[in-house]
Specification:
- This protein is mostly helical.
- The chain has a domain of 186 residues: Tetratricopeptide repeat domain (Serine Threonine Protein Phosphatase 5, Tetratricopeptide repeat, Alpha Horseshoe), CATH 1.25.40.
- The protein is 58% helix and 0% strand.
- It contains 14 helices and no strands.
- α4 runs antiparallel to α5 and α5 packs antiparallel against α6.
- It is rod-shaped and about 185 Å long.
Length: 393
């Protein structure tokens, strides 16, 4: 703006100088002079002042300068890494809901698969738990019931060896090991077909001495049965049934040393035989090693829960210590595995009698007497009859 004013001032000065030089020349040449025109009554404003006023008004009307932006408090992220995306709360809630729903579906699927596997395993393993679901309730131990009608409560049979081998009057000539396998009846063909070729299955040869030993044992001839069993053992030293029968006969005859010898031979011949294991552990319990025998019996029963001999031996061990609530389930399991054994039935009846359950006790006394008519028993049938009559009154 000052340059413009200077230029205007110089232009006016040069114009005034030309006028003066021109006036003098005209006066000199013609004697004439130029008179300046009269000025207007209102003088023109000074251009310099006007421009200065305009600059002042423009400066006053202009907005104030903006301050420079403040530096951010945080360091800006690199250009290559954009700021993280923050999902809105609604999206986060939907994600959580979807996660819980997925976990629930997976849990239900796992439960379904587990139930299916459990069902398949149970269907493939038909061996149910040894103790049936309809087990007789066990009452707390109490004192033995008083004698009724002059008949005292019989004592349980607590042999140190397993009962004698099972034999029946009508099947004395056929020991248990000689039973031929059963064959399923063939289905009737829908159309006539050629007959299948004949196949001859050899019948197992029976041991005459073993048959005679079982017959003598059923008749009560312990001495004759012992001689026949000894013949079988001389011919076959690994015959476990004959060895156990000799141990039981010697035990009943009071020859405990000979009975222990036969038990050890049976255990050496077949260490995995439950009857031999039960006989050896019952002997240890009678010799004062009850805790060791009980622990070993429980371990064996965990692997062979359906063994009648092991359950009977554990029941006898508990009965010796008057632990009737523990003995009764063991006797029940033994009867479930071998329902025709009179000694198992009799001991179960005594345990129920001790637990003050007269009705099931009378039922099992009756079953024990019936089984004693078919197989040799170790209990006194007359004492069982007296107790059965007392319970009926």
């Amino acid at each position: 703006m000052s340059l413009l004013m200077d230029a205007l001032k110089r232009a006016e000065a040069s114009k005034a100088a030309r006028q003066e030089s021109g006036g003098d020349a005209a006066a000199d040449d013609s004697g004439l002079s130029l008179e300046p025109l009269p000025r207007a009554a209102r003088p023109l404003p000074d251009l310099a002042q006007h421009l200065a006023a305009v600059d002042a008004e423009l400066a006053h009307a202009a907005p104030p300068p903006r301050p420079p932006p403040a530096a951010p408090a945080y360091a800006p992220a690199a250009a290559s890494s954009p700021p993280p995306y923050v999902a809105p709360p609604e999206a986060a809630a939907d994600k959580r809901r979807l996660l819980w729903l997925s976990l629930g579906v997976l849990l239900l699927a796992g439960l379904g698969i587990g139930g299916y596997v459990w069902y398949q395993v149970n269907s493939l393993n038909p061996a149910a738990p040894l103790a049936p679901t309809a087990r007789l309730p066990a009452a707390p131990p109490q004192a033995p019931p008083p004698a009724v009608g002059g008949g005292a409560s019989p004592k349980a049979i607590l042999p140190d060896a397993p009962p004698l081998p099972p034999t029946t009057a009508g099947e004395a000539a056929t020991p248990p090991t000689a039973t031929p396998p059963r064959r399923a009846a063939p289905a009737a063909p829908s159309a006539p077909a050629a007959p299948p070729p004949l196949r001859l299955t050899p019948t197992p040869r029976l041991d005459a001495d073993l048959v005679d030993a079982h017959a003598r044992l059923q008749a009560g001839d312990l001495e004759g049965a012992s001689q026949s069993f000894r013949k079988v053992v001389r011919r076959d030293p690994q015959q476990t049934d004959a060895l156990l029968a000799l141990a039981a006969i010697a035990q009943r005859q009071g020859d405990f040393s000979d009975a222990e010898n036969w038990r050890q031979r049976a255990l050496a011949a077949d260490p995995a035989n439950p009857a031999a294991q039960a006989a050896a552990l019952s002997s240890r319990a009678a010799q004062g090693e009850a805790q060791v025998a009980e622990s070993r019996l429980k371990t064996l029963l965990a692997a062979q829960p359906q063994s009648a001999e092991l359950n009977f031996a554990l029941g006898n061990l508990s009965a010796r210590q008057q632990r009737w609530p523990e003995a009764q389930p063991c006797y029940f399991n033994a009867v479930a595995a071998d329902p025709g054994n009179p000694d198992y039935l009799f001991n179960l009846a005594v345990s129920l009698d001790q637990l003050r359950q007269p009705r099931p006790a009378a039922q099992h006394y009756r079953l024990a007497l019936e089984a004693a008519g078919r197989r040799l028993a170790a209990f006194d049938p007359e004492a069982a009859r007296q107790r059965l009559a007392a319970l009926k009154e």
